[in-house]
Design a protein that fits this description.
- The complex is a heterodimer of chains A (107) and B (120).
- By secondary structure, chain A is mostly beta strands.
- In chain A, 0% of the residues lie in helices and 50% in strands.
- Chain A is built from no helices and eleven strands.
- In chain A, strands 2, 4, 5, 6, 9, 10 and 11 form a seven-stranded mixed sheet that branches. In chain A, strands 1-3-8-7 form a four-stranded antiparallel sheet, with no helix packed on it.
- In chain A, a hairpin with a 6-residue loop joins strand 9 and strand 10.
- In chain A, 33% of the residues are buried.
- Chain B contains no helices and eleven strands.
- In chain B, strand 9 and strand 10 form a beta hairpin.
- Classes of the chains: A mainly beta (107), B mainly beta (120).
- Chains A and B meet through strand 5 and strand 10 of A and strand 5, strand 9 and strand 10 of B.
């Protein structure tokens, strides 16, 4: 199975800050990497697919990069509605696997 | 607008059975693979199963032989039959739609989930 390791597991930031979350795969996954956001009691929301493609309707302050085993999600200017938990997930092969999540909290 | 609405979650005793449903709307259901993902209380996410457009199915190892995924394209509904339930199956179960890009399907829309609690 491909292991996905996210860091940090949590971070505190202020509105307007630039935030970067990293995700590492235990083996190469090309660019088959999804980032999504989850808020308590809400449906997860997909943000970035193919490592760097923005899902329709997602604000342009979200961006993704990377390929192979190292990936990043960047929020260029954190907004109040962005405080949530973020996950990466590989879909290169079964079983689909997820990172452990990064909780973004208000500083 | 794509909508996915899960139902069927309940409190069930160990060894019991349950059938989850996911009603889809806003897209041509038969054209998409569908996936179940679960999240135990306070934990991360775990892929459970995927069904393709040709009814090919894939399961995580821990549920093989106990869970069965199916779809009814005429009703735009996805199902997950859960048998032999264990305490460790307690989780919110999400259904999600897959869309294919570059030869691989990614989860683009998710439902809000339904809670399965396995306890005596």
């Amino acid at each position: 199975d491909i292991q996905m390791t996210q860091s940090p597991s949590s971070l505190s930031a202020s509105v307007g800050d630039r935030v970067t979350i990293t995700c590492r795969a235990s083996q190469g996954i090309t660019n088959y990497l999804l980032w999504f956001q989850q808020k308590p009691g809400k449906a997860p929301k997909s943000l970035i697919y193919s490592a760097s493609s923005l899902q329709s309707g997602v604000p342009s302050r979200f961006s993704g990069s990377g390929s192979g085993t190292y990936f990043t999600l960047t929020i260029s200017s954190l907004q109040p509605e962005d405080f949530a938990t973020y996950y990466c997930q590989q879909y290169e092969s079964y079983p689909l696997t997820f990172g452990g999540g990064t909780k973004v909290e208000i500083e | 607008e794509v909508q996915l609405l899960e139902s069927g979650g309940d409190l069930v005793q160990p060894g019991g059975s349950l059938r989850l449903s996911c009603a889809a709307s806003g897209f041509t259901f038969s054209n998409h693979a569908m996936t179940w993902v679960r999240q135990a209380p306070g934990k991360g996410l775990e892929w459970v199963s995927t069904i393709g457009t040709s009814d090919d199915t894939y399961y995580t190892e821990s549920v093989k032989g106990r869970f069965s995924m199916s779809r009814d394209n005429s009703k735009s509904t996805l199902y997950l039959q859960l048998n032999g339930l264990r305490a460790e199956d307690t989780a919110v179960y999400f259904c999600a739609r897959s869309s294919v890009v570059d030869g691989r399907g990614y989860l683009d829309y998710w439902g809000q989930g339904t809670l399965v609690t396995v306890s005596s």
